[in-house]
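Support request, please re-run this one:
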Amino acid sequence: MSHSLAPHWRHIPENPNALHAGVWPASSHRDAAGELIFGGVSARDLVEKYGTPLYVVDQAEVEARVAQFRDIVAKLCEAHGVKGLVYYASKALTTGHVVRWVSDLGVGFDVASGGEMAIALAGGAAAAHLEFQGNNKSVAEIRDALRAGVGCIVIDAPIEAGRIDAAAGELGMIASVMVRVNTGVHADTHEYLATAREDQKFGLSPEETLTLVADIRQRKNLQFEGLHSHIGSQIFEVDGFLEAATRIMDLYQKLLPHGAVPTLNLGGGFGIAYTEADQPMDIHAMMTAIVDHVATEASRRGVPMPDLAFEPGRMITGPAGVTLYRVGVVKPVVVHGDDGSEATRVYVSVDGGMSDNARPALYRADYSTRIASRISEAPPALVRVVGKHCESGDIVVDADYLPSDVAPGDVLAIAATGAYCYSLSSNYNALGRPPMVGVNDGEHFVMVQGESITDVLSRDQGFVKKVEAKA
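Re-run finished. Output below.
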């Protein structure tokens, strides 16, 4: 059963205080007083210390997810006599702490800009375990990557081969490169998250790839390491990955007679649960299907199985993150239907919004929410959690159920915000970006300092000049 204004999959809960398993961090629970606890720390303690909005990241959950994925890939590939490599997708969430947690567990990094590379290196990641991606790498970024000793640069366009070759020649070195292939597989995800369709910016067609690899193999400063494929993000089914792997294996077979193709990187994009309606495939089952499929394709073609690489991002940090907000305004809104019916949706305004979580505005992404500061016996009411920005599309949670007595001053928690929230944050409406804190075994610590209005103003040179003129 659901409210007439709610999506069909969002059912009225028996208990609007309950936490849906698989959506919230594994450590999440309510204490005897009804407060939400993350990593052994109460939401109340966190907001009293750091304020709201506040990004919270559960260190133990991040580390457990890294170790789980690393071990799954290693064991599955080892069973077929090949190596299994893992590169954490930095774009999901990259900070000094995250870099240390991931690199300490022996996992590399997929970086897509000079900035992400700088954070990875500053955080202690080994340059040899970095893979540099992007569809428009500057010459400066290429040189910086080569000087740093990155393990591989993924070529996204033919023009890059010449740029990397020239930069490597100037530095007197050999650059390891892969080629990103646009397989044409249409992943079942949001249009803007599908990255292997023909009419988009990433990668090369199989035919273009054959020509480019032949060119790379003739260049004295380039070493061809393999093929890269990425079909999209927030994907729940394995079929797209299997079809992409088949097409990559077609290309692999055509390239082998002319030289080695050591590695196939099959990307990432593994989905997570943002709501109780999301049912992502078990990651062990998904990875087993993918690795075994590549092995079967290699056997069928009579070619050796290559080493395999994968790039999890969202599934590592997404479920480990929660965002805390303070409720400011609660406003029931009566909506009239075309048939003359009436229904009420409660708008709950919080002190953040699209500046700290742009995904609902970008992708119409759905999230789940709960009151973090207390429990309530009040019946559930359909709510829309909205931000304070001057946009009607400034929605944090489009539709969920909270106790009907939700009120100003309550602290709300939004689940699964550990990926693509901080990364996409902005200063829209001159709001400072929130701080990020880590929690682990009852301890809490600052990961990223928040921004005050003073911080926001400090970059504006118009104000600096006025101060200097007065002085």
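The first strand starts at residue 29 and ends at 30. The first helix runs from residue 43 to 50.
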